[in-house]
Amino acid sequence: MQLVRQKGNKSQQGHRYAAGPRGRFGVAVAALLVAALGTACGSGDSGPDKAAKAKAAKAAEAGAAGALSAAEKAKAAQQARVVAAKKWGLRKTPLAAPPAPKEKPEITTRDGFEVEDQEEYPNVFTTVPTEDKVVFLTIDDGSEKDPEFLKMMQELKIPYTAFLSDYVVRDNYPYFKKMQDAGVTLNNHTLNHRYMPGLSYEQQREEICGQQDTIQKQFGKRPTLFRPPYGNYNQDTLRAAKSCGIKAVPLWNAEAFTNRMDYREWDRDLHPGDIILTHFRGKEDWKGTMPDMIRHVMKTVTDKGYAVARLEDYL
Ligand SMILES: [Zn+2]
Q1: pLDDT-derived band of residue 21, with 50, 70 and 90 as boundaries?
Q2: CA 278 / ligand 1 centre spacing (Å)
Q3: Dihedral class, residue 137 (left if φ above 0, else alpha if ψ from -120 to 50, else beta)
Q4: What pTM did the predictor assign?
Q5: What is the CA(51)–ligand 1 centre distance, in A?
Q6: pLDDT of amino acid 57
Q7: What's the confidence (pLDDT) of residue 74?
Q8: Model confidence over 167-187: pLDDT tens digits?
Q9: How far is the CA of 189 from the centre of ligand 1 (A)?
Q10: Contact 135, 275 (CB under 8 A)
């Protein structure tokens, strides 16, 4: 890492935590229970009281049926995951992520990662402030294009975000179109994967805006997230990124390989909201396949009690 760091006292604390919508099922089931008890005990009732009770029971039933079918849906989804996890050789079934937060967390630039006048530029962060036991999977570059990987992720329903560098992507745009069609957001990792601080402002702008244009042209959507190659940047990088329409610069707090994890923090552990980096790499790069890498990172994530959530849900 050769991050350009400025001294700053901006605290990482003070983030709002947005709780997800919880307890709906409990309320509906309780209502049904009360209605059922009322029906059982009030068999001798008559008149408007009985009519009102019947109406309440019917409403509670309708509400509970809706909630139960949602619960059943979640159960069916998890059962499908159990099957997919076995099929793809995962030791444990991945945990289901909680619902997307209703209120997005307030993100600030990580302490020590600021450039001069940081407040004018997109924030640079390695962890999303949340109390949810979730981490985020981000995959960079794009040289390896393994169809098995697309199939695996779709069947396991593990969300991830891609940061694409055009020089390794351009020989097979349809592969990444399939990825996008499966719900993956394609973000900006520059045209040619250069060391940004070694370039002039204009050159950096070409690398970043050029990739914005390419992704828009090939995939119909202009990215809002940018990750500088190697995590290296200076003020010109963030200034250029902003001028190209970039809203945020997520780096990472852990990196996944086929046989190990690297951690940024001294505790060598995952934390709620951590962004995990990995790469589109194949056997020649790291003696394993993309599915091997996913099996390893998911073992780590699940063993530690985390679910993989969608980064875009929190930004
Ligand atoms: Zn890269």
Answers
A1: very low
A2: 9
A3: beta
A4: 0.79
A5: 67
A6: 55
A7: 83
A8: 999 999 999 999 999 999 999
A9: 7
A10: yes
Q: Which of 163, 190, 159, 186 is nearest to 174 (CA)?
A: 186
* CA 187 to ligand 1 centroid distance, Å: 12
Do strands 248-250 and 123-125 pair parallel, antiparallel, or not at all (unpaired)?
Answer: parallel
For residues 172 and 115, what is the distance between their CA atoms, to the nearest angstrom? Answer: 36
Q: Taking residues 14-35, report their average pLDDT.
A: 37
Rounded to the nearest 10 degrees, the angle between the axes of helix 24-41 and helix 47-87 is: 140
How far, in Å, is the centroid of ligand 1 from the Cα of 231? Answer: 8
Query: How much distance in Å is there from the Cα of 30 to the middle of ligand 1?
Result: 52
Cα(190) to centroid(ligand 1), Å: 9
The pLDDT of residue 50 is above 90: no
* Mean pLDDT within 190-212: 98
Average pLDDT of the segment spanning 291-304: 98
